[in-house]
Amino acid sequence: xxxxxxxxxxxxxxxxxxxxxxxxxxxxxxxxxxxxxxxxxxxxxxxxxxxxxxxxxxxxxxxxxxxxxxxxxxxxxxxxxxxxxxxxxxxxxxxxxxxxxxxxxxxxxxxxxxxxxxxxxxxxxxxxxxxxxxxxxxxxxxxxxxxxxxxxxxxxxxxxxxxxxxxxxxxxxxxx
Length: 176
Ligand code: HEC
Prior knowledge:
This protein is an alpha+beta fold. It is 24% helix and 28% strand. It is built from 4 helices and 6 strands. The model is unreliable at 1-28 (pLDDT under 50). It comes from Nitrospirillum amazonense. Residues 1-28 form the signal peptide.
């Protein structure tokens, strides 16, 4: 599929130079990301940014079955400033993180939905030079702090490129 060709082309160059966003280690994210935090995603070399669990909320999201998840998209200071100013494209240094949990019913209240087990942490990092072949974005998908395989990372750019090119490849709007 044509969409993925550029991702594959960029693979060689990116794999050689793993991007290190910031040192990661034991922190508040420990329970979610396990002992593996620090490993880089294939193709892009994106790592889990330290302290993301305390970042500001951009918006929540819900994913229907079969995944059936609750999600929260958070951003670093650069991301939040860009959202608030309506800046497009997002400037270099923007980092967006999507946290996801299984959607479960509150044990105390039948109609309330609450987060269950943590599932994935997904990351987009803006670096217009390094990731020129993928709209300036590097992608990372992690489960228990461990990056998903290359095949999964080959899907990221295709979907974001196809559906939200007019918003710098970012789906999430800032929730009021
Ligand atoms: C088939 C479509 C599709 C694919 C493939 C996909 N995404 Fe997304 N992504 C979405 C949608 C839709 C959202 C909006 C939030 C939501 O519904 O969870 C999103 C949101 C995001 C966000 C929050 C910023 C934004 O654009 O809203 C990040 C970060 C992200 N995805 C990372 C990834 C990574 C990393 C991969 C590859 C491992 C990936 N995505 C693959 C559809 C996709």
